[in-house]
Structures are given as C-alpha cells and as structure tokens.
Amino acid sequence: MDTVITTDKLTKKFGAFVAASELTFEVGKGEIFGFLGANGAGKTTAMRMLCGLLAPTSGKATIAGFDIYTQTERIKRSIGYMSQKFSLYDDLTVSENIRFYGGIYGMTRPAIRTKTATLLEELGLQSEANTLVRELPLGWKQKLSFSVSIVHDPGIVFLDEPTGGVDPVTRRQFWDLIYAAADRGVTVFVTTHYMDEAEYCNRVSIMVDGVIAALDSPANLREHYGRASMEDVFYELARNAKRKGD
Amino acid sequence: MRQLLTFIRKEFLHVFRDRKTLLMLFGLPIAQIVLFGFALSNEIKDSRIALVDYSKDAVTTRLIGKIEASHYFDIQHSLASAGQLNTAFRRGDIKMAIIFPANFGDDLIHTGKATLQVIADGSDPNQATTITNYLGSIVADYNAELAQDAHQPLQISPEVQMLYNPELRGAPNFVPGVMALVLMLVCTMMTSVAIVREKELGTMEILLVSPFKPIYIIISKLTPNLLISVVNLIIILVLSDIFLGLPVKGSIALLVFCSILFILTSLSIGLLLSINAKTQQAAMMGSLMGMMLPTMLLTGFLFPIENMPVVLQVLSNLVPSRWYFIIVKRVMLKGLGFTAVWKETLILAGMCLFLFAISLRNFKIRLQ
After folding, report:
1. Closest-approach residue (CA) in chain B for A55
2. Of the segments A111-120, B45-54, B165-174, which one has the largest average pLDDT value?
C-alpha cells in the first residue's frame, strides 16, 4: 500500500508547552485513519501542522509526497479540509457554495458545473440547488460540507470532528459518504469523540498529553487492552491524562 | 485570477443578500446630508420678535420695514407698551424685543443720534448673540443709507464679508464633515465585520487551508467596500450640489483621487480591527467607538481644533479624517488645486500605506 502521510518525530511547542510530541506514523492511500484523544490532547495541533496551518517546531513530515516545511502550496492543492465549525456560507445557495469552493481551488467553470451536478445527485439535493444553505437541516449541511471539502478531488481529506451535534442516523449516512470517498482512493484523516465512529476506521491512533499512546486497528486495540469496546480502550488510556480540556 | 474573481463575486453576493445592511449603507449618507445640511444648521431663521414703537414716524417705519423684509425675523407682536413684554418673554413667545422710544425719528434727524432698545432672551446666549448681531447689521445698513442721503461727512463703517460662505450657512462646513464621517464609518465597519465573520463561521480556516492566497482574501474583501464607498461619495456630492447648492468648485478628479485615498485608509483601519477582533460585535463596537467618536470630535467640523487643549490638537493629527476634511474643504468649497492640498494628500497616503502594511503583516502572521 502506498503511504500518503508520513511523519517522523513531528513536534510542536508553544513556549515551554509541548502541544504535540514526536508524532511518528504513516497513513496509507485510501485508508480511513481515526485520530482520537481527549480535549487538549493535541489532536487539533497535529492536524493543523499536517494541513499547513501551523509550522512544526521540529521533526519531519510529508503529505502526498510533499514536504510540510517547503512545499506547503503543493500540499494545499492536494488536501481537503472540513472543520468542526460549519464551513459553508449561510447566505449563499447550495450551488453558489459549491461554485465558490470549486473556484478558489482554481477549477474551471465547466468542471465546476459537471461537479455540481454529480454532487447534488449523490446527495439527493437536486431540488435544493438554489436554496439558501441556512434553510437546510443540519444533517444535510454537514453532508454538503463534506462533499464541498472534496470538491476539487484531493488525495487526502482532513475532517476535524465532522459529526459534532448530528443525530445518529445522519452520522451513519455521513460515514457512508466517507466510505464512498475512501473507495475512490481518497485518504480520510478524521478526528472524533464518538467511539462508535472509531470502530468504523481502518486504523486508530489515540493521543494522550501530546503523545501517541496507541496506534492500531480497532480490533487489535481491543484485543491488546483486553476490552470489549473502543470506548473502554479509550477510557483506559485517557483517564490518566494530566491535561484537561482546552 | 479566476480564483480572485470567484471570491469577489461571493463577496458581492454577501452584500446584496443582506438587504438591511445595504439599506443602511446607502441610507446613512442620505440621512446625514439631510440632517447636517438642513436640520442641524447653526444659522437662525425667523426668530420671533416683538416691536414697541412709541415714535411711529417715517424713520421707524422704514427701519421696521427693513427688519420685516429680512428672513431672520418674524414679527409676532406690535405692542403698544413695553409693559406686555415680560409676559411674552416668560411664555417664550418671543426671543427679542425692539423698542423705539418716542421722538426716535426727530432725535435722529435733528441731533444726529438716536437710541433704540433691544432686549433679548439671554437664556440661550448663542442664539441671543446671533440675532442681536443680525439686527445690528440691519441697523448699520440703514445708518449707511441715511448717511448717504444726508451727504454728511464720511463715516467709517466696517464692511464684513464672509468668503466662500457669505450667508454663514452651516452646510459648507458640514458636507465635508459628513463625507469624512460616512466614508470612514462604512469602510471600517464593513471591512472589519466581513473578515471577522469568516473567522466566526470557521470558513477562514478552510480558506487558509486552500491554495487561495491570503492577499487575495484581503483584496476580495476590500473590493465591494471600495465600490460601495465610491457610490456613496457620488451620492453625497450629487445631493449636496442639488439640494444644498454646493457644487464641487475645484477639480473633481482631484477630489475623487483624494477620496479614494481616504477610503483606502479607512479600509486598512477596518482590516486592522478585524485582525484583532474575535467577534463581529467586537469589530462593530471597535469601529463605532474607536472611529466614530474621534472622527466626529477631532476632525474639526463640529468643534474647531484650534480651540482644543494642546493634547487633543496633537491627537487630532493622527485622525485621517482631519486631513481629508481639509482637502475636501479646499478642493470642493474653495476650488483650490493640488498645490494647496499636496501636504495633506501626502499625509493621507503615508497613513494609508502604513496601516495597510501593518494589517497585511499581521494577517500573514495569523497563518503561521
């Protein structure tokens, strides 16, 4: 399997505070990689470094084969990003949002038009193309948000707690979209607080106090820690964390 | 380039979708012009006065005719005796009373001297001073006429002429002030809110992760505001020409150039505010409190800067609208050219560059 994300002792310090310490892992192409950790464990810092939003203090990393120190512009073209905050414009319509995000990634007009049609069909939103996003139910917004984050067909997509505040049914549907993307070869790097979602991932890493405390498939982790569910595995690892919240 | 156009298009959509804000943007200058141009004028028209004429001769009749003819006074009562004046003053019916003593005309013609009594309501000192001055000038005017008729030895009387604004109207001073105020407010508020909104929404992160250049974000945010401000400028200039009779006397090109410079300065301030503000409300309050008050107080259109304490005088140098106000007054009202305003223009340009450079630098720092 090709690796699309490699990090080697990636570290970020804010003054004396080590937010992320010597992170070393690899993520393969088309893999769904879960990135777990309690609040304040350093997930967001790690993700921000990988996205090029934050410069690492030390260590090495490549995203889609590009170096995160010197080739951030190339990286930006190869990744998609969806934040935990809702990232569509409320006062624009569904198709205007798609057009905007396609546009800032430099897609041509015809390409955007074709993509818009496919996306709307996939999401079953054809009749809502000209509806303002603020009028859509939250679950639809979330799904649209995900589709928009991969509108430019990136090799890797980073999802930062994408399902916060969404009902279980919509969460399942959301994960169907993630699986569909992964089947097309998109690598999905996802942070979440829902342990049932952790079970959906191919592999999971659990961060505690800025370091990766465990990294394996959910099944192996359960076996290794002798627990019945990921929930218990997570609790076992995270309960001794010294950092609380952020 | 295509990316930039996409973004600018989106910004215009935001502006046009928000009808309320749009209405406010264009309503503000119109309301301000009407308020400052018409309502808040410091000239006093049609002051109600009372007349008591004990003399009733040719001289008083002519003088009263002159007073009646001026639009400053509205003669409410012609009272038979001064005894009734007190009541009229108390009730607030009149602001001033003029009493011609008996034999007023005779005295004037035979002795060359006559005295009339003027009583004004001093509870509003500014108004009292102004209207007694008006009356003084009418009397002086009449004096001069008499002197001419009588072929008496030459009398020296000062002839005061108010340049640029002979009738001492309020509008010529207020319009440049309104221009400075409106442009400053619209630019800083719109810009600061536009950028902070992206932060609040979480879309800023998405934009920063995308290959879209940060400088493009700034350009796209500023473009609609620049355009709206130019439209506002045109509205103000047209309104003041048509309704206030204040055409642009100097070069329109120069005025527009300086205005755009001022607009860009204000946009940079908005940019700077938005970088430091965390919420839209904070940005809004920052631009209202931080910009409106200094602009109103330290520009010089409400209170003369020369009369302020030295500290405020020094501070006022930092307010961009102060310099813009001077430029507009010189170019628009006096019709002066670039040689008269180059210093102020240079100061504005300097402020603009400085503010834009800082905000650009800080905007980039946020990415790292």
Report:
1. B368
2. A111-120
3-class DSSP state for residue B64?
helix
| Single-letter residue type at A119 | L
Q: At what angle do helices B104-111 and B58-69 cross, to 10 degrees?
A: 110
| Of A159, A160, A219, A212, residue with least CA distance to A186 | A159
Give A-chain residues touching B211 at CB under 8 angstroms.
73, 76-77, 104-106
- CA–CA gap between residue B207 and residue B200 (Å, rounded): 13
Burial classification of residue A38, based on how many CB atoms lie within 10 Å of its CB (0-12 exposed, 13-18 middle, 19 or more buried): buried
Q: Give the residue ranges of DSSP H helices in B151-213.
A: 171-201, 203-209
How many Cα neighbours within 13 Å face the side chain of B149?
A: 9
**Measuring CA to CA, which residue among A80, A115, A77 is closest to residue A95?**
A115
Locus of tokens 């996802």: A190
Cβ-based contacts of B5 with chain A (< 8 Å) = 103
**B201 touches A: beta carbon within 8 Å:** yes
Report the residue of chain A nearest B206, measured CA to CA: A81
Integer Cα distance of B306 and A125 in angstroms: 65
* Closest CB from B3, B203, B205 relative to A53: B205
Please tell me what DSSP assigns to residue A32: E
User: By the 8 A CB rule, do A183 and A177 touch?
Assistant: no
- ipTM, 2 dp: 0.84
Nearest one of B1, B133, B163 to B72, comparing CA atoms: B133
Question: Across chain A, which distance is largest between two alpha carbons, in Å?
Answer: 54
Cβ contacts of residue B236 below 8 Å, gap of 6+? B29, B33, B175, B178, B179, B182
Q: Judge: B13–A92 Cβ closer than 8 Å, yes or no.
A: yes
Tell me if chain A has a CB within 8 Å of the CB of B212. Answer: yes
pLDDT at A244: 60
B13 and chain A in contact, CB less than 8 A: yes
Best residue in B205, B219, B221 for a mutation probing chain A (most A CBs within 10 Å):
B205
How far apart (Å, rounded) are the C-alpha atoms in residues A146 and A162? 8
**Chain A residue numbers touching B209 (CB-CB < 8 A):** 51-53, 76, 79, 81, 158
Rounded Cα distance between B84 and B91, Å, is 11
Residue type, A167: D
Terminal-residue alpha carbon distance, chain B = 24
CB contact under 8 A, B3 and A81: no
Per the structure block, which two tokens stand in for B281? 């409300």
- Is-contact A10 A62, C-beta < 8 A? no
| Contact partners, residue B135, CB within 8 Å, separation at least 6 | B67, B73, B96, B98, B118
Chain B residue with minimal CA distance to A82? B206
Instruction: Please report which confidence band the pLDDT of residue B354 belongs to, taking 50, 70 and 90 as the band edges.
Output: very high
- Read off the pLDDT of residues B107-150 as tens digits, 9 standing for 90 and up: 877 777 778 888 888 777 777 778 888 888 888 888 777 777 66
% of chain A surpassing 90 pLDDT: 35
Q: How many C-alpha atoms does B235 have within 13 Å on its Cβ side?
A: 20
Residue A54's closest chain B neighbor by CA? B368
